């Protein structure tokens, strides 16, 4: 719903006296909540309830989110122009632009990165609390078991919906995809702009959910337990709704941007791998995020009306199926960008042509396709054996296209002269971690084994290996790789590598032992467990604390380098993708001219650059 | 060529050593398994591991090998001398092997084991089973043995506990509801019936009755190995962690004695 | 980027968005089949439902014709067409509100659950579609649109026609199949 005729931005900021956007957003959100809540209470047929009921909280929340998004700037940036008013709205050029609604994809990207990093450390802090609790076989840190389960649920929900799905897509995707395809912007900048501000809203909703009562379901919200839980589960549904909406907006924007805004000469055959990863993820998001949203709406209705969709007289298993229909593609939503990053960074570090490029892309696309056919392997404990056949088949088959990412990476590394820089090292570590996650996935695909290790720490270890090991390690690698582009500054190789080794040891020390714990009979979602499991749990916790410290170290190091690291050369890695053709950090319009792509980005057989920036005058032939 | 030979030899040596190590511990890979079903899972686990260990070592070794043999001596960007973008042989072998392995895994152990499990479930094969009615409520396992008129098996402390005879097929009948409560559609949630030492779990879903067949293969008890316990594996609310019950697998005569004790206890 | 390419991108993006919004409907339809099979409650009044759907179909035609008029620089025709479309949309919501008000299907019944979810979600999208048309209407009334700036009107029309299609399919599923 964009208007092709842009409103001339005036140079005046602020246009008139107003509160700082974030404050105004919070204020409008508060007003929205009060209005929505009171309006619901006013028409509530069951008078005499407290001032905030689950139903009134629902409407209050909806109004609060609208108030928040409008307040941070969508009112001037989206609503007024759509209604035909031309509000003089110009983005400030200093730090303040990061604290309000923006239409610059680079600003949005950094906003997303900051939000998801902050959430990563909040949810990571919860993980530390969980590990501290599990150092003893009885309840000693958390006061109530449902408090522990809420911590587990918030940890999982935040990590999945506002870190793992968001950091690479909303953060790096928004920032780098337009640069990598030589575009001056995205097609729907306002959509991404709104998208970002839904993240703090969703995160706050989930963090505040205990206000309505501890919920015990973990991040999956299994029915019928969810209907039985206290009201916090309502905020779980709503928070996830806001966060998935955010990813949906970004996916839509990036897909259309990749299709329509590519530079001249950037054919599909030359599209950067990271863009391929992003488009694959976006398609998965576009299909499955509306699915989970509707599932959660049904869950809400089931609870609030109430209905009997998913309890004993309805069909609890249909909720499970609906959840995992989304839930399994979600795993690949998280990890496909990581696959793309491996093969994006490895050729640069090796200065060697990417091996079997089409294989790497086909791998990404086939994983994308197959990911919709495997969901029921999360429910082997609910299935007739005949139903297990197809799902174990597709689950095992999905390892084949996954292997293509390894094949391309290995082919590229073979007899290369690989620069073991911090990003290079982290990518190799990420490949190792994902290898373990993938191999243990083959065990899980076999139903008889699955029936033993399902719902145990074996599974916990498996998916942390794929998500932290695959996605988070690649994310950290990409942060170091692109830091010179984001900030124009370099980091310290010593500290980068030292901290990489710290997180590698912490991670593997913690999660490899969880496989053994699972095989030894440690089940999930427990704040207390039989005492024979304590020694290993104690060790796991120590390694987990090391991992937490390591991530904190990376945060401090990257923040330091971002602000005051040594100046970086224009193209420190000698990368050939288009983002290196412009200044660091890039100017508002990305490129001082028009980008022309001449050859593939992953060919290092000659010194000829892959793309050039031409002066603006060259006419643009219709595509 | 020398690179390939060196890499290949190291890989084969490491894989052989690792598989040899696996064969030493293969009766303990799932720690403590005492049921036919569990042994099926453990055998499958070992079978897959024997193949997957070389695969894992191949990639892991390659990453280490890269760090040693393929690293740039200094940090400068120098174009690699070798610029291969395609190698039909390598790709073909990779793809063919990954297909072969996955199809093998699906046929064996997956399909073969499912056949076995499926066959064990046929009622015709299960005529003289010991029937154990298992009721999962929040948060308790209630065991009753209708053939012996035991409505709720408990131990001396009055806590739910179950004793099974070794070598006899057991039919667990799994239901989730609260027998101490008038029927309420909201009052039952999904539990998961799991005996770690039996190597199998089954979700217990409100509104459904499910069956699970297990044959214990040796005597053991919660006191000798804590994996011999009934444990809820699916989160079912605040009491989930404590939803467990000790289990004993005993000889036939000992089981009969236990039945007598339980019957006596029931009569007060 | 050329304005033509830009428009093409907007159009593609918007249609893609609309396509994603079929997913929630498909999920409810699947749930309806799962829970009810082909059962239709005998308490339903087929004719009220038919009137609701008819209002929407005619409304969709009005909106389409309105955008066509806009392409022919007929600003007044556009405003009239959208006004008619919005009125018919409100008629649809009014009829639905009447039906809900009579509670002729109990919420607690298996059929009632699906009926209320499906019609409720459909009404929600109808509301969104009406809001989008209203925005376009207000803006066109304020600034006067011509053949070169009809994208917002077209977007509102696309969304509206999508919702008409979803509502009609939902009608068939609830009332007939």
Which structural traits does this protein have?
heterotrimer; B: 268 residues; alpha+beta; 2 domains; four-stranded mixed beta sheet; 4 helices; C: 177 residues; mainly alpha; Four Helix Bundle (Hemerythrin (Met), subunit A); elongated
Provide structural commentary.
The complex is a heterotrimer of chains A (623), B (268) and C (177). Helices cover 64% and strands 1% of the residues of chain A. Chain A has helices at 21-43, 54-82, 105-133, 145-164, 167-180, 189-207, 225-228, 232-260, 273-304, 316-350, 357-370, 385-397, 399-413, 422-445, 447-453, 457-487, 493-519, 534-564; strands at 594-597, 611-614. In chain A, helix 9 (273-304) runs parallel beside helix 11 (357-370). Helix content of chain B is 40%, strand content 19%. Chain B has four helices and ten strands; from the N terminus they run H-H-H-E-E-E-E-E-E-E-E-E-E-H. In chain B, strands 3, 5, 6, 8, 9 and 10 form a six-stranded mixed β-sheet that branches. Chain B has a four-stranded mixed β-sheet with strand order 2-1-4-7, with no helix packed on it. Chain B is elongated, with a radius of gyration of 26 Å. By secondary structure, chain C is mainly alpha-helical. Chain C has six helices and no strands. Chain C has helices at 3-20, 22-36, 46-71, 75-102, 110-143, 151-176. The radius of gyration of chain C is 18 Å and the shape is elongated. The interface between A and B is large, with 96 and 91 residues.
Describe how the helices and strands are arranged.
The complex is a heterotrimer of chains A (623), B (268) and C (177).
Chain A: H1 21-43, H2 54-82, H3 105-133, H4 145-164, H5 167-180, H6 189-207, H7 225-228, H8 232-260, H9 273-304, H10 316-350, H11 357-370, H12 385-397, H13 399-413, H14 422-445, H15 447-453, H16 457-487, H17 493-519, H18 534-564, E1 594-597, E2 611-614
Antiparallel strand pairs in A: 1-2
Chain B: H1 2-24, H2 36-69, H3 88-121, E1 130-137, E2 140-144, E3 162-165, E4 170-176, E5 191-195, E6 200-204, E7 210-214, E8 220-221, E9 229-232, E10 244-250, H4 252-267
Parallel strand pairs in B: 1-4, 3-10
Antiparallel strand pairs in B: 1-2, 4-7, 5-6, 5-9, 8-10, 9-10
Helix pairs in contact in B: 1-2, 2-3
Chain C: H1 3-20, H2 22-36, H3 46-71, H4 75-102, H5 110-143, H6 151-176
Helix pairs in contact in C: 1-6, 2-5, 2-6, 3-4, 3-6, 4-5, 5-6
């Amino acid at each position: 719903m964009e208007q092709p005729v842009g409103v001339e931005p005036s140079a005046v900021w602020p246009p008139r006296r107003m509160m700082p956007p974030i404050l105004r957003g919070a204020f409008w959100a508060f007003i929205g909540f009060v209005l929505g809540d009171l309006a619901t209470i006013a028409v509530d047929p069951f008078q005499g309830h407290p001032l905030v009921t689950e139903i009134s909280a629902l409407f209050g929340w909806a109004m609060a989110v609208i108030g928040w998004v409008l307040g941070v700037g969508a009112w001037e940036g989206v609503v007024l122009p759509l209604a035909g008013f031309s509000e003089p709205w110009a983005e400030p050029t200093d730090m303040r632009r990061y604290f309000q609604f923006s239409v610059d994809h680079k600003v949005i990207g950094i906003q997303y990165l900051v939000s998801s990093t902050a959430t990563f450390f909040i949810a990571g802090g919860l993980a530390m609390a969980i590990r501290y609790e599990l150092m003893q076989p009885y309840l000693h840190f958390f006061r109530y078991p449902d408090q522990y389960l809420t911590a587990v649920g918030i940890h999982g929900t935040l990590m999945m919906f506002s870190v793992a799905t968001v950091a690479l897509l909303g953060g790096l995707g928004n920032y780098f995809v337009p640069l990598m395809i030589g575009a001056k912007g995205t097609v729907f900048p306002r959509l991404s702009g709104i998208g970002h501000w839904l993240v703090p809203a969703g995160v706050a909703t989930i963090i505040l959910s205990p206000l309505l009562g501890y919920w015990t379901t973990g991040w999956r919200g299994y029915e019928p337990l969810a209907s039985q839980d206290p009201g916090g589960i309502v905020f779980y549904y709503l928070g996830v709704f806001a966060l998935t909406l955010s990813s949906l907006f970004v996916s839509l924007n990036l897909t259309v941007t990749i299709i329509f805004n590519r530079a001249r000469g950037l054919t599909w055959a030359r599209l950067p791998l990271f863009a391929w990863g992003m488009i694959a993820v976006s398609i998965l998001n576009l299909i499955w995020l509306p699915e989970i949203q509707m599932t959660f709406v049904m869950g809400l209705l089931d609870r609030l009306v109430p209905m009997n969709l998913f309890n004993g007289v309805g069909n609890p298993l249909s909720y499970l199926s609906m959840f995992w229909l989304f839930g399994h593609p979600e795993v690949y939503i998280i990890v496909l960008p990581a696959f793309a990053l491996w093969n994006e960074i490895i050729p640069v570090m090796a200065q060697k042509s990417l091996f079997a490029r089409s294989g790497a892309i086909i791998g990404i696309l086939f994983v994308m396709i197959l990911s919709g056919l495997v969901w029921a392997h999360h429910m082997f404990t609910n299935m007739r054996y005949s139903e297990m056949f197809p799902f174990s088949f597709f689950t095992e088959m999905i390892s084949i296209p996954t292997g293509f990412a390894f094949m391309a990476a290995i082919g590229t590394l073979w007899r290369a002269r690989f620069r073991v820089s911090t990003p290079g090292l982290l990518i190799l570590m990420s490949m190792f971690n994902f290898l373990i996650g993938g191999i243990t996935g083959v065990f899980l695909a076999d139903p008889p084994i699955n029936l033993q290790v399902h719902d145990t720490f074996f599974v916990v270890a498996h998916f942390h290996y794929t998500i932290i090991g695959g996605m988070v390690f690649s994310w950290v690698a990409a942060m170091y790789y692109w830091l010179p582009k984001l900030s124009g500054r370099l980091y310290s190789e010593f500290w980068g590598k030292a901290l990489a080794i710290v997180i590698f040891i912490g991670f593997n020390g913690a999660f490899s032992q969880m496989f053994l714990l699972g095989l030894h009979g440690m089940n999930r979602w427990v704040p207390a467990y039989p005492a024979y499991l304590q020694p290993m749990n104690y060790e796991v916790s120590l390694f987990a604390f090391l991992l937490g410290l390591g991530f904190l170290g990376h945060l401090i190091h990257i923040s330091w380098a971002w602000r005051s690291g040594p100046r970086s050369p224009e193209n420190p890695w000698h990368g050939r993708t288009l983002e290196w053709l412009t200044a660091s950090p890039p100017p508002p319009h990305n490129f001082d001219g028009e980008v022309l792509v001449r050859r593939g980005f992953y060919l290092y057989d000659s010194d000829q650059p892959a793309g050039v920036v031409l002066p603006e005058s060259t006419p643009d032939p219709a595509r | 060529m020398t690179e390939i030979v060196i890499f290949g030899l190291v890989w084969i040596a490491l894989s052989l050593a690792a598989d040899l190590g696996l064969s030493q511990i293969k009766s303990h890979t799932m720690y403590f398994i005492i049921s036919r079903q569990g042994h099926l899972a453990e055998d499958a686990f070992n079978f897959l591991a024997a193949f997957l260990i070389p695969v894992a070592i191949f990639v892991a070794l390659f990453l280490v090998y890269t760090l040693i043999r393929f690293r740039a001596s200094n940090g400068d960007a120098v174009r690699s001398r070798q610029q291969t973008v395609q190698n039909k042989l390598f790709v073909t072998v990779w793809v063919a092997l990954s297909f072969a392995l996955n199809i093998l895994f699906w046929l064996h152990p997956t399909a073969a084991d499912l056949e076995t499990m499926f066959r064990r479930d046929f009622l015709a094969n299960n005529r003289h089973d010991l029937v154990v009615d298992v009721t999962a409520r929040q948060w308790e396992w209630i065991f009753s043995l209708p053939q012996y008129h035991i409505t709720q098996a408990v131990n001396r402390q009055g806590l739910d506990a179950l004793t099974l005879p070794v070598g006899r097929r057991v039919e667990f009948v799994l239901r989730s509801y609260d027998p101490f409560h008038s029927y309420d559609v909201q009052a039952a949630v999904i539990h998961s019936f799991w005996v770690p030492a039996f190597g199998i779990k089954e979700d217990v879903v409100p509104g459904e009755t499910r069956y699970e067949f297990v044959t214990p293969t040796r005597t053991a008890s919660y006191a000798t190995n804590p994996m011999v316990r009934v444990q809820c594996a699916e989160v079912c609310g605040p009491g989930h962690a404590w939803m467990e019950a000790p289990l004993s697998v005993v000889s036939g005569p000992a089981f009969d004695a236990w039945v007598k004790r339980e019957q006596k206890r029931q009569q007060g | 980027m050329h304005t033509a390419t830009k428009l093409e991108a907007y159009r593609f993006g918007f249609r893609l968005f609309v396509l994603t919004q079929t997913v929630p409907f498909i999920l409810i339809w699947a749930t309806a089949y799962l829970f009810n099979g082909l059962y239709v409650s005998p308490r339903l009044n087929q004719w009220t439902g038919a009137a609701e759907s008819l209002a929407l179909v005619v409304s969709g035609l009005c909106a389409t014709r309105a955008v066509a008029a806009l392409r022919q620089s007929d600003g007044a025709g556009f405003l009239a067409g959208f006004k008619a479309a919005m009125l018919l949309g409100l008629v649809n919501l009014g009829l639905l509100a009447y039906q809900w008000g009579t509670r002729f299907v109990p919420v607690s019944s298996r059929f009632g659950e699906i009926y209320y979810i499906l019609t409720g979600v459909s009404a929600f999208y109808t509301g969104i579609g009406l809001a989008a048309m209203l925005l376009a209407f207000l803006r066109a009334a304020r600034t006067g649109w011509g053949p070169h700036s009809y994208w917002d009107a077209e977007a509102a029309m696309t969304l509206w026609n999508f919702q008409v299609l979803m509502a009609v399919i939902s009608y068939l599923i609830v009332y007939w199949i």
